[in-house]
Amino acid sequence: MDPPDVELTMEHLPHVLEHPTARQDGKTPSWAPRRAHLTAVPQDADADFPQDLAEVSTRQLRMLCNRTYQALDTDHPSLPMRERYDLLVEELERRERQAERHGAADDSREKFRDNALFSRFELYRNGVLAGYVQYEMRGGDVLLLHSVVDPRFRRMGLEPVLMQAVLLNAHRRRLAVMPYCPEAQEFLASHPQFLSLIPARQRRRFRLLLASRAAVAGQERP
Question: What are the N-acetyltransferase domain coordinates in residue numbering (predicted)?
């Protein structure tokens, strides 16, 4: 008996991976991140944060940035902590631009940043936002929820550049990746070297899906 004609697409994966926003009634709410609770930053935490970032060395800025990022790695990071992280990132990027001007660097290259204030990974080209990946942090997992690339930059092939930067960022920070957006799923299918970033249980399901899709594609070839 011939197997049933079932079309397997990457869009099925959110259901296979048990999408975290799925409710028991079968309806899936918006992927937009929940608004952070407006909790105050403890006084002792403010004591370590410099009043003037311009007077802090770049090395100290990076250390502060890493510590602040770790503080954001919770289910409900505070808004003041997000704003603090954004200030640190902006100061580091300002120094990068200043160093590039002094070194006459090529401004045409892409620049990647983690915009924790808006919960998205961003890719810039010539100072223009070319695309971003919306995410949500849950403990040590980063959930990739939605990807957008400006149509003006799609011909330049920036979508895989953005996705690779996102996965490398997760690797450096020892974060597990949950690829819920189709763009992330397709990139991982084409770049299996990044599959180790997916938690083991979900990785097995992902590989089974890829094998099923390959089998269906083989049957459809003349």
Answer: 79-222, 113-199
Structure tokens belonging to residue 159? 């979508």
Tokens describing residue 26: 């079968």
SS3 111: strand
CA separation for the pair 124, 112 (Å, rounded): 6
Q: What is the pTM of this model?
A: 0.52
Among the listed residues 53, 51, 74, the one whose alpha carbon sits nearest the alpha carbon of residue 63: 53
Asked if residue 164 lies in contact with residue 191, where contact means CB atoms within 8 angstroms, the answer is yes
Q: Quick check: helix, strand or coil at residue 181?
A: coil
If you search the block for the tokens 């940035």, which residue do you land on?
Answer: 65
pLDDT at 167: 95
Identify whether the C-beta of residue 143 lies closer than 8 Å to the C-beta of residue 202: no
Q: At residue 168, what is the residue type?
A: L
